[in-house]
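Readers outside the structure-tokenisation community will struggle with the description of the input data as it stands. Showing the layout once, in full, would remove most of the difficulty. For illustration, here is how one protein appears when written out as sequence plus structure tokens:
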Amino acid sequence: MSIAMPVPDSETLAKRARIAQALRAIVPGEGVIDAPEALTPWESDGLTAYRQPPLMVVLPETTAQVSAVLKWCHAEGVKVVPRGAGTSLSGGALPLADAVLLGLGKFKRVLEIDYEDRVAVVQPGVTNLAITQAVEGRGFYYAPDPSSQIACTIGGNVAENSGGVHCLKYGLTTNNVLGVEIVMMDGEIVRLGGRHLDPCGLDLLGVVVGSEGLLGVVTEVTVRILPRPETARAVLVGFPDAEQAGACVAQVIAEGIIPAGMEMMDRPAIHAAEAFVEVGYPLDVGALLIVEVDGPAAECDFLIGEIARIADANGAVTTRVSQNEAERMAFWAGRKAAFPAVGRISPDYLCMDGTIPRRRLPDVLRRMEELSQEYGLRVANVFHAGDGNLHPLILYDANVPGELDKAEAFGADILRLCVAVGGVLTGEHGVGIEKRDLMPEMFSDADLKQQSRVKCAFDPELLLNPGKVFPVLHRCAELGRMHVHHGALPHPDLPRF
């Protein structure tokens, strides 16, 4: 394993028993787990290649308990790693040996639903899908829908700014969260945003969404709910190869069509998904697009016709339009099951998460195939094609010496490729530890120091989720220093605050 984590603090390890005793006083009963054998289920998140048992696990049930835990840990200099459902694919919730793992699984209540304002107020442990299930009886739903939506929680979605198959038209988590209650590392409880219009001043809510647990612990989320569209139809389009499918994606968007969702799978992913869920995917194609449109029936009919025309012009060999809701859901069932399906054909895999300009999709796919040959590892591709968010699944066997290292190097080259063509390191999975050491590929040293200053403004002692996101963790005092030359500050003409 090439990824290194911070060296555990010996003083913290030495006072482990005292930490457990103090936290049991805050979260009594079974709220603290510290027996070594009981910590195994918490030693990893969705990036299972990396494992590390935590110092202990604390499972609070109220915001007051979260506040008290953080306040005590802040006073004692104890690190804290927040955790939702543990579905992170970037190692964002990987524990530390000298850190308390703060699990929010007991925060699972829907607190309020306001259909007139079209908002729902939920606790962070509520699963993504459960929000839709809570409001669908009145014809509403929550738009962001990650493939793990049956398990991932809204708190984790906020931390990673998760997307899903419908984020092309309806946006990521940041576009659908109106407010949060967040507990700072010193225990202070703060509310950002709400059901009102955006306030003036700094967009602190925008800073918190996607902050990967580095700035505070979210204990309540206000989300936007939407009325179900009148009609939704999906079309399966098969192509001889992924490059032609990528060209079709680019042309659809270029012609001003914004589907509700547009997903792509290549041949290995198609075969794995079809064997798993048996929904009737064509097996004689090199790439498959699933395109969904929604809205008034007449609009959907027109857009389906336009998409079929564009697909034909780009060499489509098969086109199938859903005829009813059950068939539409079947089309998506295979795509949403792609990750577990690939797990049936390989002992292990790494799921990448780069994002590229749509027009570069054919070039990137071609280069990924070359990299696959160079590294001798297979890759199955599943994309949020409409917004250029790639999810290459690198297949390897951790029991074969050196294969994890090769998979890591292969994945790093894919992410470097994404940046080189004008894209970014992540679209929705976050940086975590997986992409931490690649941050300099995208950001300059000045950029990273400025981001670190934001971290310091929220968490000056660097106790929340350390070891993630930043390849070099500067002390806040270092970031605040200014060079004094001959007793004079730089740019003396500028006002100082």
